[in-house]
Amino acid sequence: MKNEMWLLLLISVIGVLWDRFTRWRGWSVDFLIPVASLAVLSSIPVIARIQHLEQQEYLFYLVQACAFGLLLPLVLLLTGVVRLPYASILCVGASFLVLAGLFLFQKRATTQELQKKFRM
User: Fold this and answer.
1) Taken in order 42, 44, 50, 56, is the CA torsion positive or negative?
2) What tens digit of pLDDT does each residue of 60-74 get?
3) Which long-range contacts link 99-102 to residues 24+ away (Cβ below 8 Å)?
4) C-beta separation of 86 from 31 below 8 A
5) Predicted TM-score of the model (pTM)
């Protein structure tokens, strides 16, 4: 799970740099970042189920993926960097729904995991 989060960050940075140095067309912020975020967001539960992981082993990474998919595309949308907003809106909406679902249906486990990771 940690590797998947690092890959998401690495792919996003490399994609933006590639787009920047090959005459900026905006494909990285319009498509790459939201689609990569959605891919990670949807693959974490699948990997957790296939590998029979405990909730504590994947919950924090799912929250991280939700935060990345919620904040980065939303900031890019609000600043006007994104020209085609559909993928970003879908990513923000899906991330918000997953995060809300975690706090509605798994509140105790989610808050315990966040407290453990942030030493609150």
Assistant:
1) negative
2) 999 999 999 999 999
3) 99/63, 99/66, 99/67, 99/70, 102/59, 102/62, 102/63, 102/66
4) no
5) 0.89
Largest Cα span, the chain: 48
Look-up: residue for tokens 């020209």? 83
Distance of CA 6 to the CA centre of its chain: 11
| d(C-alpha 91, C-alpha 38), whole Å | 6
Q: What DSSP string runs through 32-96? A: IHHHHHHHHHHHHHHHHHHTT--HHHHHHHHHHHHHHHHHHHHHHHHHT--SS-HHHHHHHHHHH
pLDDT one-digit tens code per residue, 43-93? 999 999 999 999 888 899 999 999 999 999 999 999 999 999 999 999 999
Helix (H) or strand (E) holding 19: helix 2-21
